[in-house]
Amino acid sequence: MKKPYIILSLLVLGLATGACSALTDFSEDAPRENCVNGTDDDGDGFIDCDDQDCQDEAVCRGGEICDNFIDDDGDLLIDCEDPDCATHQACNVGAETECGNGIDDDGDGFTDCADQDCLVSPECQLLDEICDNNIDDNGDGLIDCEDTLCVDSQVCTGGCTVDFAWFDTDAEAVCLGDASTCTFQSSDGPVSGEIVPMCSPVMGQYYTRADQDLCPKGAANINGVCVTFCSPQHVPCPEADWAVVPVTPNCRSRDLSPRLSGYHFCVLEASCEPLGGVGCPADHSCKFDVLLKNETGSEVMVVTGPYCTIPFGSRAQDEECAANEECADHMACVKYQGETQGTCQPACRATNPCDNSHTCSYPEGTDITDAGFCLPIDTAK
Description:
mainly beta, nine-stranded mixed β-sheet, three-stranded antiparallel β-sheet, 14 strands, 20% strand
């Protein structure tokens, strides 16, 4: 009675064996790597244990397995970090072939100098900053003494102190290098930072915009404007021989912008017009000091000036200000008496009225009675 079952079992076993045999015959059509014969049997460029086909073979498991994220041989180097894997297929995925073409050549997610393959490439070597040639030698956006690499350079320190930085002091022997002079600069470049004495190249004319980011001795580049510093001990201010209109240099000491770190600065006094700046040198704005006082219940506008300067700020109407130079064009920083902050306001007159949200308020007892300054309607009285 049991024979039919035995025959059936043998038949199933035979079919299974035949299927397996057929599968094996199919797979053997493709060459496989023989892991001990010193030959690249499957033609993929990797021989014996360097071929991933052999990674599970006993003969190849004595060293580092190069793609399992494990330190198999206990030398504290994992996978491709281990020299044992230098020629292994898993560790030869190409390299960054060009280190300045903006392309991730080896497809590892790192481009050019961000790829460790480029560490010794000339394109990726950080150059030293030459601290007195007015060039960004290492391409980090900071020139000469602005660069932290120059912080200890004698060119940038030397004996340059405030005493030698003024426009009228002799500082030829203070700074090293023929191109450096002791002058004033912004500690973090022309846009922001404390005003400090520093060895730097100098160039250009007083009362002008910076020339190639440089200014004459004693003048600092603030937002592209050369601001010349002065004090009671360092006057008169430099002449403006280039001006084609009558001007008188003067040291301004009132209503100073915090941007100047407490220093006084030179302006050009002139008989200029508050609307349009007629009477000022080219590129200059006509500025007035405008103060609002409350006297016996009424508001009085007191205007003094005028003077010409290039604003180093660009604040618009109604924006807060501490000084005229923070306001764009010919606007004044209008303040209430006793206040350190005001708002930027333009001049006005009957032929040049204010906009609908402002009214033209006129000063009393000044020499520009035909002109006033705009005030917001909700504050004007």
